[in-house]
Amino acid sequence: MSTNEIIRNFSIIAHIDHGKSTLADRLIQRCGGLSEREMKAQVLDSMDIERERGITIKAQTVRLNYKAKNGKNYILNIIDTPGHVDFSYEVSRSLSACEGSILIVDSSQGVEAQTLANVYQALDNNHEIIPVLNKIDLPAADPEKVKKQIEDVIGIDTNNSIECSGKTGKGTDEILESIIKILPSPKGNSENPLKSLLVDSWYDSYLGVVILVRVIDGVLKKGMQIKMMSNNTEHTIEKVGVFTPKALDVTEISSGEIGFIITGIKNLSDTKVGDTICDRSNPIDKPLPGFKPSKPVVFCGLFPVDNSEYQKLKDGLAKLRLNDSSFSYEPESSSALGLGFRCGFLGLLHLEIITQRLEREFDVTLITTTPGVIYKINKRDGSVQELQNPTNMPDPVQILSIEEPWIKATIITPDQYLGSIIKICQDKRGVQSNLTYSGNRAVISYELPLNEVVFDFYDRLKSVSSGYASFDYEITGYKEGNLVKMGILVNTESVDALSMIIHKDFAQSQGRLVCEKLKELIPRHNFQIPIQAAIGGKIIARETIKGYKKDVLTKIHGGGALDRKRKLLEKQKKGKARAKQFGKVEIPQEAFIGVLRINKND
After folding, report:
1. Confidence category of residue 141, pLDDT binned at 50, 70, 90
2. Is the residue at 188 inside a domain?
3. Which of 40, 57, 400 is nearest to 202 (CA)?
4. Which of 434, 451, 481 is the last residue of a domain?
5. Strands 493-494 and 529-535, sheet pairing
6. How far apart are CA 176 and CA 192, in angstroms?
7. Average pLDDT over residues 191-212
8. What is the mean pLDDT of residues 27-52?
9. For position 245, which CATH number holds?
10. Sorting pLDDT into bands at 50, 70 and 90, what band is 447?
């Protein structure tokens, strides 16, 4: 029996909260990866925020030894993947390092939107798939109905499906035996020249950059000279190891195996995910295809509430970037909010996770500006400008057209909520492309502008469906839209932090909302303050904060009082006009935060 034949590499894929990490716990326990004392719930979710929210953010790898019923010992390499759409790049990377997948479906909830998305990614990677029906111990479990759903909606055979409970461990042995019988062993040859795939990399404060690799051909050994094919840099391997799930040093990892290497690299930018690693002394001609790089789709500004915390924010972003190469940041300054950073994320959950980690791990109190997407500005001179920040929008005279990113959304919902969901999609400028049924569940496909989705779409969807609807999307491309830049003026001065790009049909209602909110939140001054929403030079909404009025007439009595009163009122009027002209309106932080929350609550 060759070395490759005893190896099985597989990912665990599922919708959010269908039990991936819990099932991984049972497999680790059954194979003795950790002792009973070391075991804890969701052992592969190492971050506090993952454990609190009950979600997986980073894909985790574990190598287990399993003695099958046929008496042979096998090596199982498991990758536990995230379920949320914002972390689908983690899923695609993990799948390309494996030959098979365990598809977990909650036997009480059935097939959800991200179940579909992850299965299609696995099929694109030519994976053999084992369907597993989890949570059969729940009173609402209906395995037969869910099997039919898997066949109807996804179209995969459920004859080899397994019923299990990640909580009690029922079905764990059947899953392990199916992995051995159904999933293929990796191809490749240890005798060939080294060819390995860089699956992931992260920064460890003691070891430097840790590189997760899948060896396709050849062997990786300690002391070996390797070459990264994307940038032709050369390094010496200082340490080779595997995760069991604890890091364990080994002498070598060979063809078909997944493990980690440490080469003394100190900068993550030197390790490009999807790169091919080969032997410096015996290089290969052609690199592996690699992965599409993850591109941020949602952008927003992060500013410290207290300007003295700017350096703390800068250090925090640099450290988080070491462990999450999928978000980007660059310095930005705002006349209203001071110094901060323009950051790019893979979605709103990703944005939420990063801001929460900054506040918790680095003790920075943040203001987050309105999230936006990348627009393409087609100029009259034939050039195209990518625009993330509305304040950088060129003069409207130079603009020929503006394009915005669109997505294909898949929504799965019980049919009693269908009408409400269709209304939300129509309100968001959606175009329905498909509607099918599986039992009493509807599967709807919609094309939607991403800008309409990033604010509150997910929250509203969950709200109208009592939490039962699930949602997944992929970006399809750019389309021209009737988009305008709406600016906010306070006392005739433009407030750059509040400007936004918006569809012309929604500009007036949104402008009115912002003006009303600012009127509530900006304190009164000694002079009248106009708050206006404008498109170019045209005012589309206005509110006025009345000024304080001192009674200057109370002490005037006797002859000529009327003239003296008129003179005093004229003098007061001139004073107010001068105060309005030279007075500066300080907009409190609460006003910015209040306006930024409009999109989340309305």
Report:
1. confident
2. no
3. 57
4. 481
5. unpaired
6. 30
7. 79
8. 55
9. 2.40.30.10
10. very high
Contact 276, 218 (CB under 8 A): no
Domain count, the chain: 5
SS3 assignment for 309-337 = HHHHHHHHHHHHHHHCCCCEEEEEEECCC
**Which of helix, strand or coil describes residue 41?**
coil
When the pLDDT of each residue in the chain is averaged and rounded to a whole number, the result is 78
State whether 170 and 239 are in the same domain.
no
pLDDT grade, residue 122 (50/70/90)?
confident
Residues 476 and 489 in one domain: no
Same domain for 34 and 164, yes or no, is yes
Here the CATH number for the domain that contains residue 468 is 3.30.70.240
Work out the widest C-alpha separation in the chain, in whole angstroms. 118
pTM over 0.85: no
Residue 135 pLDDT greater than 50, yes or no: yes
pLDDT at 11: 84
Domain harbouring 325, CATH code: 3.30.70.870
Helix (H) or strand (E) holding 582: helix 561-582
Range of the domain at 205: 195-279
CATH of the domain at 46: 3.40.50.300
Pick from 147, 599, 574: nearest CA to 370 = 599
Lowest mean pLDDT among 109-113, 409-413, 430-434: 109-113
Closest-CA residue to 128 (of 14, 3, 257, 11): 11
Task: Tell me the C-alpha distance between 118 and 404, whole Å.
Answer: 26
Residue 147 class from Cβ within 10 Å (0-12 exposed, 13-18 middle, 19+ buried)? buried
Q: What six digits make up the tokens of 169?
A: 């461990």
Last residue of one domain, picked from the residues 329, 349, 371: 371
Question: What contacts 24+ positions apart, CB below 8 Å, involve 341-344?
Answer: 341/301, 341/302, 341/303, 341/313, 341/314, 341/317, 342/299, 342/300, 342/301, 342/388, 342/389, 343/299, 343/300, 343/301, 343/302, 343/317, 344/296, 344/297, 344/298, 344/299, 344/388
